[in-house]
Amino acid sequence: MTLVEKVGQTAQRGTSSRSKTLSEDLKQAVREGRVGSVINVTKAEFVKELQEIAVKESPQGIPLIFARDVIHGYKTIFPIPLGQAATWDASIIEQGSRIAAVEANTMGIRWTFAPMLDISRDPRWGRIAESAGEDPYLTTVLSKAYTRGFQTSDLSNPTSMAACAKHFVGYGAAEGGRDYNTAVIDNALLHNVYLKPFKGAVEEGIATFMTSFNELNGIPASAHAYAIKQTLKEQWKFDGFVVSDWNSVTEMIAHGYCKDEKEAALRAAQASLDMEMMSEAYEKNLITLIKEGKFTEAALDKMVASILRIKLKLGLFEDTSFNEDTSILYAEEHLKAAQRAALESVVLLKNKKQILPIKASSKILITGPMADAPLDQMGTWSFDGDASKTITPVDAFRQDNSIEHQFIPGLHFSRDSVTNAFPAVIAAAKKSDVIFFFGGEEAILSGEAHSRADIRLPGKQEALLQQLSKTGKPIVLIIMAGRPIDLSNILSDVDAIMMAWHPGTMGGPALKDLLMGEAVPSGRLPVSWPKTVGQVPIHYNHKNTGRPASKESFVHINDIPVGAWQSSLGNDSHYLDAGFEPLYPFGFGLQYGSVEYTDFKLSANEMGMQDSVHASITVTNRGSYTEQETIQLYMQDEFASLTRPVRELINFEKIVLQPGASKTISFTITKEDLKFYHNGKWITEAGTFNFWISQNAQSGTPEKLTLSE
Ligand code: GLC
């Protein structure tokens, strides 16, 4: 291969996914061997035409790898990743990404830019929607499931897709939750939280990584040698390849890290970034840098080898054909899987006086801007989904004429501020038994570059809810959004709340079944839900501080006596107006019945470093519904040479319990579960540990264990 052809493999070029023609420039670049991958081609014939040129006309005949953001479905759209995380069910994620790969394969796409593994502790950040939430352990379990689903166990399987762990690294720690913003993460926190899911993906054999837009501690991620070269490639022995994010190489000039594109190319290549997405710093400068002795051809060969290795594993050198049978798009079993994912992603947050599920004989008013929003229901990163295939809640109720219901939107999109339809909604509400208010955010208010400083329901949704509340009729608020919503203004106006995230193609039937009791909510929050945006960033695995707040000492701002003595309110870590706990904690979710946790015990309260201990609990379904229960094991290292979080999720199990059934669940604990990263290495220190087996990050009573050397 010539230098031009080697650099060509490091180039990812693209077309607009809406262009009707293939550019001659792109075809010529492929013909000359100056392209390694193409992104966003959305016609099978274009894929075949470009591949034909690459294999038959380019100097080395090296096949292209076609890439696309197949994030939570290709045509059949699953819930957004934050919603899928709320299922706490790896099998759902694995099945969904397998289906996405099979559907995307009909377009010749063999590389997806998923899973997104950024730990997200700030719901102002638009991309929390694409994440698996705030917890490293849950995100790690799901990162492995995504990898298995997209890649299968054999990348040469013709329907496999190379998966891509993104965005490497620290993107979710963007200051202020503002996208692309600065991230400052100390080395211990980087390893103990942000790197964990990425390491899990490498352990599962993920094929590629993508660097992130943010700078990490003063160095843009696309040139972060400590992250890419030292940690990912040298320490973790990752043998796939690393692609930049869109123009993130040349954006290092705007970052103020490189003076020009030539320096950006050098810094990224020296950090061991293998492929450049869209920008052309490598194409324009790498050969010159090699000729000037600033970079070496041997280093370039390593970059090219990592790219060719994945193309080889994908079987592209043997066969670039793909199954164009589009009859599998929206196949019945795909839709069923999407409906199951939507069903199990919904989190029941409030159910005052058990008004849910609703009796079939009830007269229902359906209202709100998200009740019949087929495009927005699919959520962010779903541009290949077909909104005409979406079944909305209104569609689902209309398909069931056994349920008496009326639909008056009241508002036509989430930011709608026109209130002239309110009187009709109020009048209809007065004649109904119950109000289903489908509120939330349009898809465009979530995802990349869509951070919000005010995370309340947009437009006049709150006003309509407050007017409906005056009718005295029970209100069920079903939220479709890409983030936890600040409910502080309307929490007391609604009787029940379901968080449906953006539930995808089959969200309507799933929600109808849940509301009418045909199915039972089982989702659990993958993120802490703040009382108000002022509490953000907020997460359960926080440090204790030297003055931890307590319920006993907290005095709400409205209850502070006039002229109160300066130090009379307890000098500890809380907000006068919002306390110190979220509205709903990580791992939280109500059910229709009741499940009892009893007999929590450790098999021993002493453990040596080489021993293991079993933590067990008995879970009993005391209700009349079949429940899906996610049992969570948390630990706390009480004292260590580095302060540790007040709780850390270290295991979980999701079970099905028939009415009246009991099951004893046991988790094995070893020193591996207790280790943490400090001063450049993973250590486990002797000492005392607390363990909880509970329904969420705030419940349960701990059992103590003493770990000795
Ligand atoms: C975007 C996103 C990234 C995506 C890529 C290709 O800017 O940051 O997640 O995969 O570009 O579309």
What does this entry look like structurally?
This protein is an alpha/beta fold and 709 residues long. It folds into 5 domains: 1-68, no CATH class; 69-313, TIM Barrel (Alpha-Beta Barrel), CATH 3.20.20; 340-515, Rossmann fold (3-Layer(aba) Sandwich), CATH 3.40.50; 549-581, no CATH class; 595-708, Immunoglobulin-like (Sandwich), CATH 2.60.40.10. Helices cover 26% and strands 18% of the residues. The strands form 7 sheets. It has a 6-stranded mixed sheet. It has a 5-stranded parallel sheet with strand order 4-3-2-1-10. A 5-stranded mixed sheet has the order 18-26-25-20-21. β23 and β24 form a beta hairpin. α1 (3-9) runs antiparallel to α12 (281-291) and α5 (90-105) runs parallel beside α6 (136-151). The longest helix has 17 residues, at 297-313. It is globular. The mean pLDDT is 97. It binds alpha-D-glucopyranose. Alpha-D-glucopyranose (GLC) binds at residues 69, 113, 166, 245-246, 448. Residues 69, 113, 166, 245-246, 448 line the site of alpha-D-glucopyranose (GLC).
Outline the fold blueprint.
Layout: H1 3-9, E1 11-14, H2 24-31, E2 37-39, H3 44-57, E3 65-68, H4 81-85, H5 90-105, E4 111-112, H6 136-151, E5 164-168, H7 187-194, H8 196-203, E6 208-211, E7 215-216, E8 219-220, H9 225-235, E9 241-243, H10 251-254, H11 261-270, E10 276-277, H12 281-291, H13 297-313, H14 332-345, E11 347-351, E12 364-367, H15 393-398, E13 405-407, H16 422-430, E14 434-440, H17 461-469, E15 475-480, E16 496-499, H18 507-515, E17 595-602, E18 606-608, E19 613-621, E20 627-637, E21 648-657, E22 662-669, E23 676-678, E24 681-683, E25 687-694, E26 703-708
Parallel strand pairs: 1-2, 1-10, 2-3, 3-4, 5-6, 6-9, 12-13, 12-14, 14-15, 15-16, 18-26
Antiparallel strand pairs: 7-8, 11-16, 17-19, 19-22, 20-21, 20-25, 23-24, 25-26
Helix pairs in contact: 1-12, 1-13, 5-6, 5-14, 6-8, 11-12, 14-18
Alpha-D-glucopyranose (GLC) is lined by residues 69, 113, 166, 245-246, 448.
